[in-house]
Structures are given as C-alpha cells and as structure tokens.
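Run folding on both entries below.
>entry_1
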Amino acid sequence: MTPIPNRLVGCIVVLLCFVVSVPCLAAQRDPLAVDLPELEVMPGAQWYWAGRRMAVDNIPMSVKLFSYPGKADDVLKYYLGRWKVRGHGKLSQKSIGDLTILGYELDGFQYSVQFSQQGAGVDGKIVVSPTPLNYHSHRKTSFPLPPRTKVSSKVESLEMGKRSESLTLDSSLGVEQIVHFYTDQLLADGWQQYSSSGDGRTGAVLGFQRQGELLQLSIKGLQGRNSSFSQVLINWVK
C-alpha cells in the first residue's frame, strides 16, 4: 500500500476538523450576536420593535409588532405578492381561528407574518429567525435550579447594551421550599435581597440585586390532583 504523503494527511485532518466544527460553532455561537435579515412592514402600518435582538430557547429571532388601518386581506395580498414574485423559497399559509399565519423560508431563514382583524384595523407581528437546521434549540442556563425542577422556556434579549434572561421553571417542590432554596443560594452568591411579598406558602415575589444586576422571582403554587407543584418566573437583567 502506498503511504499517504504527510502534507495530504494534514489537509485531510484540517478538512475533517472544519466539517465537524461547523455545527458545533453554530451551537456555541451567542444567539444575541446573530445578524438577522429584516422583513419590511407594509406601507401605511405603524410598527415598533418588540425585540430586535432576542432568542427563544437559544433560537435567535427578531420581532416587530404592527397595526394597519385596513383589512386583513390587504396584509395577506401584500406579503403573498412580495414573496411569490421572488419565484423561489418555501411559502406556507394557515389559519387558526381569526389568526392568519404566513410563512416564508429562504436562504436559511424563516419569515413569519401573523395577523388578525381587530375592529377597523389589523394587529400583527413579524418574526424572523434561522431555520431549525442552522440553529439548535436548548434551554441551558447558568442560573441555579432547585432539585426536581426543569426549565420549560428561556427567553434572552439585548437592549441598549443590557442583556436579560427570562426563565419559566416547573418544579415539584412547594413554594416554601423554593423560597428557602433561592434565599440561601442567592445570598451565598453575593446577591442582596431588596424586596419580598406574598405569604410564602401559596406564592411569593422576591427581588435581588448584585452590583449592576437585577433579579426578580415570581413563585406560584399550583395544586394538582394528588400533589402540589410550583411554577417560577425569573427575570434576570445582567
């Protein structure tokens, strides 16, 4: 067997490392640093950013909310017309009750326009995000979690240079156990508690601060058929 030249071996190793690293880099990339293309709001509509740089379960996205003084059919025709003339891309349309959802996929990005008639006008939102193949969903967090507790949703955002992380936790622990866990854990981590409300048994709202960081925890007890469990909403401004 003819030996493979060392130079060729080196090229093969570099190529394999690149192929293997591509999905890893996508998974490790900061979702709030991803530049997303914009989808224009139709003429005549008023709109604002609900989140220019945000991520839901690690999926980067941007969200615009808009109001249009006209008919839902006008919005439908405008976006269908713009996307159909492009001649490529994957177009979808569905309705859920009064809500119309238009979707368009092109060059690794998904565009969604969701709207409904509200009286004499139309309320809607525009969402842009990478396709699932280009970014992997997860709910990992550096925030401490009590035992028997899982993250059911994670929303990150970046506004005016400030990062924030909002978590929804589902726990089989009671409210009192969660309050004790976070009071002990956060004080040990250098946080200072500045507010507390609720009876601590059926619900509680706790506020903490640490240098420039702010933290609010809303804990609510939920009664099941044979047991109790809790839901925790966390808003962490970093």
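>entry_2
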Amino acid sequence: MRLFRKLSREDEWVSLSDIMTSLMLVFLFIAVYFIVSTKDIIEFPKVFQRNEVLLHSELNKVLKNNLSKWGADLDTTGLVRFNNSQFIQFDTGSSDLSPQFKSVIDEFFKNYLTVVMKPEIEKNIKEIYIEGHTSTYWSRNSSKQESYIANMNLSQARAQSTLVYLLSSSSLSVDQKKWLSQKVRAIGYSSSKPLNNIGEPLKIGESENPSKSQRVDIRVVTTTEEQIRKLANDHFKNDGSI
C-alpha cells in the first residue's frame, strides 16, 4: 500500500521539481539582497537578462525563417517546441522517430548547433535537454498511475531515440557529435506536460491534443545560478566577510 501511494504521486514530482528549482533561485535572490551592496544587487537580474536575451536573439536570427517549416516554436527563454500536426513525430506507443521528423531534426540541429556552439553562447550553457513527452493516454483499462509509469518509460525512450539518432546522423560533423555527447541530456517527462489544440501547455478546463503532446522539446539550461553564486562570493571576498 505504501508503494502504491508513492507511485500515485509520481506524476506530481516533475512539476514540483520545476517549482522547487524556481523557488530556490528566488530565495537565493532574497538572501543575497540583505548582504550585498545595491550595485551588486543590480547585477543579479542582469545575469538573467543577458543570458536569455542573447540566447533567444541568436537563435531567432538563425532559426526564424524555418521554424514554420519545421513545425516548431521558439520562446523567449530559448525553448524550442516541436508541435506541428502536419506530421507525426512518433506513432502512438512508439519511440521510433518518423521519417519526416528525422528529416526535420537533421536540418534543425545543423542550424541550432551553429548558435549554441558559439563561444559567447556556449560559456553560458550548462546543459541542453532533449525532453521526451507523451499524451496522458495509455490503454483503456490502465489506471492513471499505470498510464503515467508506462508513459514515463516511453517518454524517456523517445528522448533517448532522438539523441541516439543525432549521434549517428551523417548530417552532423564529428566535432558536433562530440559536443552533443558532452552537453546534451535525454530526459523523459511522461505525461506531466500535455498540450492543448494550439500546442500550448494545457490549462484547467481545456482539452488535450494527444498528437501535439507526443513530442520532444529542446531546452537550454544556463549557468545563471552559478554566475549569481560567483557574484555573491566575489562580494564576500572583496568585503572581507570570508
């Protein structure tokens, strides 16, 4: 019974982990607010703005003319979401990339890597996540918990299949594949982030679009937190506090 109760909360964990990460950064801001100078405080939000604005600006320059063709969207944080209903990324229950999606991924990453491998961009990148997602459905007779667990395995397999395909793709150079193996991680989110009919995160009262939910997203994780900690540590050293 205890194991069942634990599994019943699995679908809450990913979203809670995202919330806790955000809260951690908020509390970090609050903590340093009381111990550093006004000049230093002004630098902290600049770190966020500088990293995200530069990343989005450079990606947009290179990708904008082809995003529609690829069935992708680029948001202000640098997240790329493939949610085009004109072609299927994965068949229901499958982790195999469709031929159309293979073609899209090849062309997309050739362009994407020209941006993220730039020294001025790369220095602010901690990791890049290929995020696998599924719809909330599994089989008619499956419980919510059983569906989530099955979809967790499927979403992880989809993310891994995408990364494995890229590492074996003839469209990328040896150096690009080496960079991918060092920076890119494959992560499965199960059905925790379903999409609606226009490819946006599902809100209460909306209907899920299963074909759009079955997807991969490309997310950049920056070194922002490390940069903020360095600013705080530098202040302490200059102030003689440590």
